[in-house]
Amino acid sequence: MSKPEPSPYAVDEPAPRRSVGRTVGITLYSVLAGIVVIALIAVGFVVYTAQRSFPTLSGEVTAPALDDEVTVQRDALGIPTITASSSHDLFFAQGYVHAQDRFWEMDFRRHVTSGRLSELFGESQLATDKFLRTLGWRAIAEQEVEALDETERAYYDAYAAGVNAYLADNDGTDASFEYAILGLQNPDYEIEPWTPADSVAWLKAMAWDLRSNIESETERAVIASDFTEAQIDQLYPGYPFDRNPVIVPQISTVPAVGTVPDQPADGETEASSGDPDADASVIEWTEVGGVLEAVSELVGDAGEGIGSNSWVVSGSLTDTGMPLLANDPHLGASLPSVWHQIQLRCETVDEECPFDVAGFSFSGLPGVIIGHNDRIAWGFTNLTTDVTDLYLEKVQGDSSWYDGALVPLETRTETFEVAGGEDVELEVRSTVNGPIVSGLTGDFTAIADAPYTGTDGTVAAPADAPEGEVAVSLRWTALQPGTTASAIFALNSARDFDDFRAAAALFDVPAQNLIYADVEGNIGYQTPGKLPIRGAGDGSMPQPGWDSAYAWKGYIPFEELPVAYNPADGYIVTANNAIVGEDYSYELTTDWDYGWRAARIDELIQRAIALGPITAEDLRLIQADNYSFIGMRLTAAYADITTGDDDTDAALALLQEWDAQNNADSAAAAYANVLWDTLAENVFVDGREEAAPLSGQGRLFLVVNQMLDDETSAWWVNDGLGVDGMTDMLEQSAIEAHERLVELQGDNPTRWNWGGLHALPLVSDTFGSSGIAPIEWLFNRGPFPVGGGSSVSNATGWDLGQSFATVTVPSMRMIVDLRDFDDSQWNQLTGQSGHAFHTNYIDQVESWQKAELTPWAYTDAAVDATTTDTLMLRP
Questions:
Q1: What pTM was computed for the model?
Q2: Which residues contact 294 (CB under 8 A, 6 or more apart)?
Q3: How many other C-beta atoms lie within 10 A of the C-beta of residue 874?
């Protein structure tokens, strides 16, 4: 038997030994290599999955429902120009393109507006769903669709057909990357076909976003038991007519429009339906403070900074000899931006196909919301009139008291399908005033639990109330069928000021300031909207719902609403300030924006006139202006104050050299805003047994401005902080502000900057707040340093007493040149695409940060010159 071969590692010839370090190194390298490989595979899978839903931009697509071929040209920003031979094909193609770019956003929005988020994200969304279905947005939208005339209904049907044509070939992850993420939690979800009501319901969401004074009314009611009437008057002062401008100082006389929607008869009331709740969020793992906060997360935040700027300048003052029109609506920051830029043009503009319009659209809705056609341009800002009222109700069983009699409640049962759970039912109750909302949100419930009301200008428990359970109902103009769904097309095809006003007469909610310019050189303004005429109350506090004296008596007739046409001054400015003076015949609101932006814009326009002629660049610089009224006021207040702390006094010295511009790179602006925040908290919140609300910086600008002229004001005394007067309060706040800023940005003032404190985080409206870092990384971007601030022309709002981060923004900016539309400019917050990782997802952010606008091609030649991709839709 042969001997075995000796082992190479025999004892007489020991095997070589690897060092422990090398062994560990190889092992770690292997593990690391494995992790890298897995990560690369995962990234590759994510990239592949994400790109599956990117839209086809070039070539041909067959769409059997088309009558003729449609051309979709896109530029480098992904902005489409759609050219069609019929209105049907035009809106079909718009629906197709919107679905290409933003279908997840559209699907999410329709679940919001119909109170069906629980079907997507599970039980956590029930609170929000109940509240939204109590309001009944979807049911009202369905009624509005049924009321459309044949032509308008055909537009919505064509749009829905276009969306569904896209979905026929792009389902699930092929429609949007978000469906892959949703499938991890809700694998059984199936996309439903799009309907016209899905489109119209989004108008209710925008009306909620711009709902005016409901927050102020609620705040006053909640704090009524803790503060005197005089204190509340100090905290919520009237509009400063003596220092800030109104929009229409003199109402123009113009011909009546041909057709005005019927107004309800005097005393007529409408009840609404819907559904309530308490504490919910965007998706299952998101947390917010309550239902109203959740709804604001979903459809837009009506909090700090919501508003808008717009102005129009006559050609007699411009370098072109024709009007210039500017607009920048302020909305909650969102990713993607709420706007989708688009141009819709008929090959031949005629009665059947009357559109040659470009501007900003909402994904999910046909037509253009803000923009211009070949004859006119228009812009919007929030009207800020009071179109919501809370009513205290007295309920016994299934009835409520009204004028001494028990009136049966209107009730209905809503059923909620819950992903991963059992169906849930809710009984919705409505009085003659509107749906009962107490029990659904913390604030409304608190009002019912402590029913104070301002029945005659006082704040006291209503002694004459009938017996019964106290509830709170909501009356709101958007809780009844309206005509805004028709107004969009009327605006898009308007040819002159008469047509524009006829369209405005249809634009009932949300109530907006409408500005106008045309190619004949005319400029104008119209208050549209369904604006209530109140009975005994002024709408500033909850009113007795059991007494018809406090019911709405109808709506202000359209022909009596403020209008301006070619005013003598040659320009019109709207910035959510008071529309008219105190002598106007009707009560519009007690809660205007306080006019700081309007005053600054008016001042800058007057300067530009003096230097004249006015250019488009002048208008852009006004949009970019960062001047802070409160910054200037604090600088003056601290001119003669020293604290004895060298570092604080050095910071205060920065203010004396500052131009009050909240520029992103400004150290002085950083200190000024931290000082303002600290002062406001010390005056109204910290150390006080009962804190006053810090919402609405424009309101507090006026409150503190008045206090600085009155060192005896009781608000300067805060025993909880050991502060007994104005100078003491200013000194202590300056020291604390310096300490805060050092903690935030270090002790070297050259490193301080407002943009870093005030940076804008772009958070996806759905999965961006999941609490799961890898998922959030997929969809969120930023934060991006920005300048501006609250009640600043460059209106980047932030929440006083909470964070300096930007929460509301100029959602888009545009400047329209009526001499040559191709010389117009535009920009939006993020980009055209809703697809994470797409080139056009955030490609406009950098320009937006700098308030820079890009050329806005409109004519055939200009569009052709900027076209990078062409898609043909063929029948």
A1: 0.89
A2: 127, 128, 279, 280, 281, 282, 288
A3: 12
